[in-house]
Amino acid sequence: MADQSEKFQAGQAAGQAQVKKDELVSSARDTAESCKQSCQESQEQAAGVVHQTAEKMMNMAQGATDAMKNAVGMGSNTGTTNQ
């Protein structure tokens, strides 16, 4: 049978283990939240890059279309003047 000192030490060890566990859980939560925010920011940046790239491609395609129309004489700049 354990004496008072052993019971006290066992209780103290259990309390210290609980504190350590709580610290680790809190740290894990903080890390997970930080990762979540970082991922959201990265996702927003990626969406912005994709949007800008799509706009550039559309502008390039429109420019190519206009150049082709002008080359074959179907463009709006075919020498006619608007008066």
TrEMBL record:
InterPro entries to which the protein is assigned, alphabetical: LEA1/2/D7/KIN2
Record region (Disordered): 1-39
Low complexity bias locations: 9-18
Protein name: Uncharacterized protein
Species annotation: Ensete ventricosum (Abyssinian banana)
Organism classification: Eukaryota, Viridiplantae, Streptophyta, Embryophyta, Tracheophyta
